[in-house]
C-alpha cells in the first residue's frame, strides 16, 4: 500500500476559539494513494478546516500531516495538490479554455506535465463551451470548468470541498460520473467533502464520518461497490444498505458530538 495521505494525532485550534473545543482533535487518517475518500459530518465538525490543512493553507497545533511523504506546504509548492471549492473561482475576463489553461501557463517553469485544456473540457462534456466566458455559463457548467482546471496540472492529491452542493440533483449526478471518469484516468487521490450520503456512497472507496465539537473521526466505512460505478450498480439493493449504514453512523456521530453552543436544549 503506497502511503498517500497520513494524518496522525492532528489537533487544530482556531485563534480565539474556546480552548476546550478545538476545531479538530486527535484526527488519525490513512488514505492510500489513488483512493477516493469522502468526508461527511455535521456542519462545524471541521471538514473544511481539515481540507485547508491538507492543502497547506493553514497550519495545525499538534500531530503530523504528510502527503506522499511531504508536508502539505511542500506538496503545494510542487503543485501536487489541486483544490476545488464550493464556488468556482474563475477569471471572468478569460474564456473557459483560457481559464483551464491558466494553471499550466502560470506554472510553466515548474516542469509539471500539463493536460491540454480541450481534452479536459471534453472529459467534462464542455468542449462546445471552450470559447465562452464564465458569465455565459450556468452554475453546473462553471463547476465543470473548475473540475477540469483542477486536473490540469495532474495533481497527485485533489481536495474538493462540497463542490457540487449548490447544484440541482440531475446536474450533480452528471458531474459525479464525469469526476469518476477523470479520477480513474488520472489516478489521483481524492478527498471529497459532501453533505450528501448518496453522493459519498456513489463516489467513494471509503467514507470518513466525523463528529463535531470537537471535530473527530467517528468512523471509517468501506464502500465495497464494484467499479466503474455505472447506473445499474448505484440502483442496486447493496447501494441502499450502504446508504443506510452511513446514515446510521451519522446519527451516532451527531449524538456523540457536544450540543452546539447556539442550540438551547428543549
Ligand atoms: N478562521 C476561523 N476562525 C475561527 N474559527 C473558525 C475558523 N474557521 C472555522 N472555524 C470554526 O471551526 C469549526 C470547524 O469549521 P469548519 O472547518 O468550517 O467546519 P465544516 O466545514 O465541517 O462545516 C467551526 O466551529 C467553525 O466555527
Ligand atoms: Mg465546510
TrEMBL record:
Query: SUPFAM superfamilies this protein is in?
Result: P-loop containing nucleoside triphosphate hydrolases
Instruction: Domain (ABC transporter): give its ranges.
Output: 5-237
| UniProtKB keywords | ATP-binding, Nucleotide-binding, Transport
| One Pfam family linked to the record | ABC_tran
What is a single molecular function from GO for this protein?
Answer: ATP hydrolysis activity
Q: Which domain of life is it from?
A: Bacteria
Per the record, which residues fall in region Disordered?
1-22
User: By its UniProt entry, which SMART domains does this protein fall under?
Assistant: AAA
- Name this protein carries in UniProt: ABC transporter family protein
In its UniProt entry, the species of origin is given as Nocardiopsis alba (strain ATCC BAA-2165 / BE74)
